[in-house]
User: What shape does this take?
Amino acid sequence: MNNIVVKLVIVAVLMFGFGYALVPLYEAFCRVTGFGGKTDIIEEAMALEAPIEDRDVAVTFTSHSHTSLPWEFRPVTGALDLKVGEVQDAYFYVKNYSDRPITGMSTFNVTPPRAGFHFKKTECFCFKKQVLEPGEEREMLVRFMLDTELPDDVHELTLSYTFFDNEKFAGQ
Amino acid sequence: MSHAATAHDDHHDHDHHMPTGFKRWFMSTNHKDIGTLYLIFSLTMLFIGGAMALVIRAELFQPGLQFVDPHFFNQMTTMHALIMVFGAVMPGFVGFANWMIPLMVGAPDMALPRMNNWSFWILPFAFSILLLSFFVPGGAPAAGWTLYAPLTIQGGMSVDMGIVAIHMMGISSIMGAINVIVTVLNMRAPGMTLMKMPMFVWTWLITAFLLIAVMPVFAGAVTMLLTDRHFGTAFFNPAGGGDPVLYQHIFWFFGHPEVYIMILPAFGIISHIIPTFARKPLFGYSSMVFATAAIAFLSFIVWAHHMFTVGMPLQGELFFMYATMLISVPTGVKVFNWVTTMWRGSMTFETPMLYAIGVVFLFTLGGLSGLMLAITPADFQYHDTYFVVAHFHYVLFSGAVMAMMGGAFYWLPKWTGHMYNETLGKIHFWLTAIFFNITFFPQHFLGLAGMPRRYADYPLQFTEFNQWSSIGAFGLGISQLLFVYIIVATVRGGKKATKEVWDNPEGLEWTVPSPAPFHTFDEPPVVK
Assistant: This one.
């Protein structure tokens, strides 16, 4: 009888752990499948070697700064037309209007979500935290390409960034 | 063990040794007393949660803001749901399990009586904490019972109190579930094989496994909320790289099995009442068992139908749509079996039977609106409207709660030793059934017309249906006072109930005297 009790308690504890295991599982699921508009990362050398197709895609850039952050954040490159496989640069402008240094971290998202997986970055300001001194302004780079697996019916896509105050967070 | 059991029996054979007062109720290890405590607790919570529902319906009687401000309205919707789900329905079924499972399997008590005491006495403390959150700055949790991040990451101190309360009630449920499983697996009377167990025991056994599987996941989700709020983690906060949609996935991984936790024991109760009053054995017993197991299994793979609109890929939506629709197959088997049990039976319509038939009919309506919601493209219109509110009240009120009321009337003579007043019982059924439909049927139309849930106000064109709904709600609430009156009157006195109470009912619980003595089945019965 005690045996069953112990087993059931173990199951309960494992299921508590399973709740936590869902976090990396979900992350991995999104990364592997590109669900939820997650984008992919690629080595620059590989990106430059990729074959270029004669397919035009219009990419629009949008950006927001979260209300917790007294920053101006806008795309310098509003939109781009590029060919699939071609490596391109886009720039974003950011300025800290407060009188204190602030650490920000940007999240990103591609619409339509099914195109996200084929949006490959070689370099991005969103890869790491950005620390801006009081009044500091900066132009930031995203270097990216679209891989040839991009679904044929995707002719335009939007890359969106949101800057958040990252002060409180230890990770990332 | 056998020696200890003998000593125990000797000690308690004399009735005047029965503990009284504080010792009896607070330190109880007796399954019947603990069952009674659970049932009284559940009924109390039904009235507290019901009062909140009436605040909601009073505010929605007219467009515009009359009685409460929108923030308090949101607290009402959130707390109404938390209290009804975790305070009224779940403990109510645990009360039935405590009272009936040992009597049904021929066991002298639950397997772990001390733990049984703990799992009950955690609950009043958990709900005191939850209710006290009304008095902290910012008021009670107001983010909806699903406690979606990131809104709950921003909420005040009450969210933390809610999280603590959820942890406590989760521990209570898990302990209760362990107790049920151990009792059912170890303490059945000789000869009672698994496939001879009464349906209520089967449904509770499966429910208990569901509880152990998903309550810890919910505990994990709210723990993540707590650390996101106070300890710098970022599970759900995009600012730190988290994902709010992840919360919805984890929550509904718990949340969908949770809805079956709240309905499977109701199916069990119905499966006892119908054969008794149709005077025929339950049709398709083994298909009932397998249907219950199938529903439990499927409940784990349909969670995302609660979140069709979050922006899932098409393949995901299709999978969850088909998996959800699949559940209607085992559920249909059950409804078919109940109807077939009644078919050509010598039916009589005492109060429990009225409730059982009411549940079969109204729950099926709720199941049908569930099928409508399962259709992904249609769900984009129904999502977060009053159509959803109508749907889950049809399955939860006219499914779970009315099944418990039917069960209460069915076993009340066994519990108290007195027959309840049949006329009043029938009046209570008809008041409940009619007012329930006046309350919730118009909400289908409101939802289809586009009225969103969880708003304190609405445009003029929704007024008439809302007024129907509010009038029904007050009628429904007031009718429940009659329920309390009938129970109190039956406890106090009434016609003496016989051992069998009904006309030749099936089950070991009818072989012990009414009221069931403090200790039963000291000698295990033999089941052939």
Q: What stands out?
A: Chain B touches chain A through 40 residues (CB under 8 Å). The two ends of chain B are 26 Å apart (CA to CA). Residues 1-14 of chain B have pLDDT under 50 and may be disordered.
